[in-house]
Amino acid sequence: MSSTIMRRILVQTADFDTGAQLACLEARPGVGGIASFVGTVRGQTGGKTLTALTLEHYPGMTERALTGIAQQAEARWPLLGCIIIHRVGTLPPGARIVLAAAASAHRQAALEATGFLIDWLKTNAPFWKREDFTDHTTNWVEARAADHEAASRW
Amino acid sequence: MKILYFAWLRERVGLAEEDVTLPAHITDIAGLITWQRDRGPGFAAAFAPGGQVRCAVDQEFAGHDTSIAGAREVAFFPPVTGG
């Protein structure tokens, strides 16, 4: 019945409406639980104040990688829908960066699949973050070992 | 072959992408990285030994032992930090 799964993968500069996106999952036949994760731009990091976060990606490969991650989630859990929306470009503090969401008949699959989607996205999709600070310094964010540990638990 | 650079690798080499014709003896990513180091100070800094260079061959993540025979597109970048 894989033809009934809704899969939405978007890489875009524009913001997204979290409520409207989740409503699309709620509307799917048979859905009994929807889980979601929204990532936003932190205004403070390492004791410094951020002016902007710039997200660079690898056009073409990014969509392939995100589709692959969604397919993995669909293979591991009985999902009725999943959404990955990731913004690129320059974003201010507080802006939404990413939405990962999954819908299933019951909560456990939705919650676990959402955790998987965001953990794998962080380590297996070609995005890079650059921080601009109020003191006019910039920094390319370094990958964290904790992110790889989180991804490897799946 | 097309070579792409992202994030701080792009800044260090001063290029987002280029078309190169490689010497015939370069057959894998490790060989390509060694070749890159001799292309000037920016390349030497970007591909310095012990660095955190990751890569993709034809838009699939690839290890340094991956063959580039027949590859159309190779990309170099730091470890990913999305989400």
What does this structure look like?
Chain A is an alpha+beta fold and 154 residues long. Chain A has a single domain (2-152), classed as Molybdopterin biosynthesis MoaE subunit (Aldehyde Oxidoreductase, domain 3, Alpha-Beta Complex). Chain A contains four helices and nine strands; from the N terminus they run βαβββαβββαββα. In chain A, β8 (127-133) and β9 form a beta hairpin. Chain A is globular and about 50 Å long. Chains A and B meet through β4, α2, α3 and β8 of A and loops of B.
Note the total helix count of chain B. Answer: 3
Regarding quaternary structure, how should these chains be classified?
A: heterodimer
From the spread of the alpha carbons, the general shape of chain A counts as globular
Can you name the CATH architecture of chain A?
Answer: Alpha-Beta Complex
Number of domains of chain B: 1
Helix content of chain A: 25-40%
Topology:
The complex is a heterodimer of chains A (154) and B (83).
Chain A: E1 6-12, H1 18-26, E2 33-40, E3 44-45, E4 48-57, H2 61-76, E5 79-87, E6 89-91, E7 96-104, H3 107-124, E8 127-133, E9 138-140, H4 145-152
Parallel strand pairs in A: 1-5
Antiparallel strand pairs in A: 2-7, 3-4, 4-6, 4-8, 5-7, 8-9
Chain B: E1 2-5, H1 7-13, E2 17-19, H2 29-36, H3 41-46, E3 54-57, E4 60-62, E5 73-77
Parallel strand pairs in B: 1-5
Antiparallel strand pairs in B: 1-2, 3-4, 3-5
Task: Summarize this structure as a short list of keywords or feature phrases.
heterodimer, A: 154 residues, alpha+beta, Aldehyde Oxidoreductase, domain 3, 4-stranded mixed beta sheet, globular, B: 83 residues, Ubiquitin-like (UB roll), 5-stranded mixed beta sheet, 3 helices, 5 strands
